[in-house]
Specification:
By secondary structure, the chain is an all-beta fold. The chain has one domain: Sandwich (Jelly Rolls). About 0% of the residues lie in helices and about 45% in strands. It is built from no helices and 12 strands. The strands form 3 sheets. The protein has a 6-stranded antiparallel sheet, with no helix packed on it. Strands 4-11-12 form a 3-stranded antiparallel sheet, with no helix packed on it. The chain has a 3-stranded antiparallel sheet with strand order 7-6-9, with no helix packed on it. β11 and β12 form a beta hairpin. The protein is globular, with a radius of gyration of 14 Å. The two termini are about 25 Å apart. Keywords: Metal-binding. GO terms for molecular function: metal ion binding. It holds the Pfam family Cupin_2.
Amino acid sequence: MTSALRHEAGRPRHARPGGASTVQMITPDTGARSILNGFTDIPPGGGIPLHWHNVEESVLVVSGSARVEVAGEWRDAQATDVVWVDAEVPHRFVNASDSEPLRIFWTYASATATRTLAETGETRAVAVEHDR
């Protein structure tokens, strides 16, 4: 396959820790070999746990406001800001609002990206972790 067009409405939504939910968009089943991406929605006051990946990640804040922890340093990010995180660097996103949802669009530098949770050390392939 040389290209793919995916509509979010036609994709499954998967629950994540911290009240978040994720929709994977471009995945290996589209033929992608070098990237993996999707949306994560985080409710007011929610957040995703501290974790890291085996590859670089770029995260666009689509809407809302975030508190982002990268390598122990906290930063504020707003809609249209982009956060880049190197491989193996612990990070997390927390919704900074008490009333508005946070939406991020993430892209990994490999279709075989993994996620390791800091709390448990458990590692899973991102593209298949929601199949469990």
